[in-house]
Amino acid sequence: MLDSGINKVHDETRQGEAFAPFALDPNQYSKRFYIESYGCQMNFADSEIVASILNQQGFGATRNVEEADLIFVNTCSIREKAEQTVRKRLHDFRRIKEEKPGLLVGVLGCMAERLKAKFLEEEKLVDMVVGPDAYRSLPALVEEAGSGSRAINVLLSRDETYADISPVRLDSNGVTAFVSIMRGCNNMCSFCVVPFTRGRERSRDAGSILRECTDLFQQGYREVTLLGQNVDSYHFNDDIHTAPVTFANLLESIAQISPLLRVRFSTSHPKDITDDVLHTMARYDNICKYIHLPVQSGSTRILQMMNRTYTREWYMAKVDRIREIVPDCSISADIITGFCTETEEDHAETLSIMEYAGYDYSYMFFYSERPGTLAARRYKDDVPEDVKKRRLSEVIAMQNKLSRERNRFDIGQTYKVLIEGESKKSKDDWMGRNSQNKVVVFPKGDQPRAKGDYVWVKVNECTQGTLLGEIAVEQPDEQALVTA
Ligand code: SAH
Ligand code: SF4
Ligand code: F3S
Q1: Three-point CA angle 37, 40, 46, nearest 5°
Q2: Among residues 363, 380, 409, which one ends one of the domains?
Q3: How do residues 170-189 score in pLDDT, each as one tens digit?
């Protein structure tokens, strides 16, 4: 997705892409900030809000850490390894700081929220600690830190959505963009730190979301991904309508901006995705036929301990419903192996539910106990690490088999692809995605085309993660190219 080639950050999460910010207009700003992001797409979207707030304060973004006056790390706490990666980076930055008096380093995001003043007190690693709901106070905090005071704000809010702040699109391909539609999470899955680091769930003003998507379309963007920890519980009450705006309503309004604007969303919680949403997806060609539906485990007993509030059978029925209403939909999942008390039988149930669902791909993790979560308080982390890892490798092997099967099924099919840019491997090839979110690479051919264009591509081959094809000689339905 985002390929900057420089200060690229990988954590072991699925969400581990990073962007390298660039100076929008190198001469416009007298001071520079550098920001690195870890964790989920929401964190990346937040960094664009932070960039907007800092721009207004006269700071321009730089890719080059050497020329920065301010360094920010937007952090993730989801697993222990994610935190270790960030910690290592903060030590790197402290070394830079020792050689550059006046340079300020700030920790943002979920680790800031989880560890709070600990960063300033015990470790003295950073000058600023700013939680995910406190970015509006960044200018004041920068000033405080500059004058040598303790600069910390980790207050969580019940209503902050940054609705009025226009994100500065950092390292964008100009075609696809993320749009936050809600913040926080009320779900309390027992393994998860997010409700503690992100606070209560709140939905962003529907009008401001529509305006942002319309602006993006007018600027030439052709795809928006609506982001929330649990998008299906979106609901917004405005002053005009008596009934709240639901996620299905929101999806429909955005799909109506233009048939040429694709809409994606993430993440759906299996307990909340409604028939209404599925029917809306089926009605609009430009709502992408792809659902990320984290299962976590295939065992009802483990799901109950995880507090996921659905059973194995409920989840399977949800998959059936998706296949019935949106037959060409691809499905992906998140899976955790080795959660507290997980037996070989529970694990076998995870493998069999994967087969049942036929995931196109999955994001797979072994359980990492997070301090303060329900699971950490209630249950013993009693599956040995080697067992967790062995089960993870079995889950990965199963997914590889399923992905190969799913991709083989695509061979010979013709898909409408939105061109996102040149292939990383060859200047002669375009790279884009189909509605099902699969990456498709194909030779450019003779006709002039550009990123942001739609083109029909016939798939000839596949690798594990990519479909390889060629521009279809006979375009299935030219009209469909215009109406997306
Ligand atoms: N809100 C989303 C995802 C949140 S975090 C959802 O509900 O699906 C992304 C994924 O990280 C989770 O789906 C889960 O599979 C994984 N994860 C969360 N906490 C974890 C932990 N303590 N150990 C291992 N994986 C974890
Ligand atoms: Fe975490 Fe569960 Fe909320 Fe997802 S739905 S963010 S896994 S608590
Ligand atoms: Fe990580 Fe926070 Fe996202 S813990 S996954 S950055 S909400």
Answers
A1: 60
A2: 409
A3: 888 999 999 999 999 999 99
d(CA 420, CA 208): 26
Give me the domain span that covers residue 324: 176-409
**Structural domain includes residue 295:** yes
* pLDDT value at 401 more than 80: yes
pTM above 0.85, yes or no: yes
**CA separation for the pair 430, 443 (Å, rounded):** 6
Residues 220 and 132 in one domain: no
| Domain annotation covers residue 370 | yes
Task: Classify 28 as helix, strand or coil.
Answer: coil
Report the alpha-carbon distance of residue 400 to residue 398 in Å, rounded: 5
Radius of gyration, CA atoms only, the chain: 23
Residue 26 has a pLDDT of 52
Domain shared by 261 and 277, yes or no: yes
Q: Report yes or no on 378 lying in a domain.
A: yes
Q: How far is CA 390 from CA 212, 319, 353, 365, in A?
A: 45, 27, 18, 11
**Mutational pocket test of ligand 3: of 46, 47, 75, 110, the residue with most ligand atoms within 8 Å of the beta carbon:** 110
- Report d(CA 323, CA 329) in Å as an integer: 7
Ligand 1: which of 40, 77, 78 to mutate, judged by most atoms within 8 Å of the beta carbon? 78
The pairing of beta strand 104-109 with beta strand 70-75: parallel
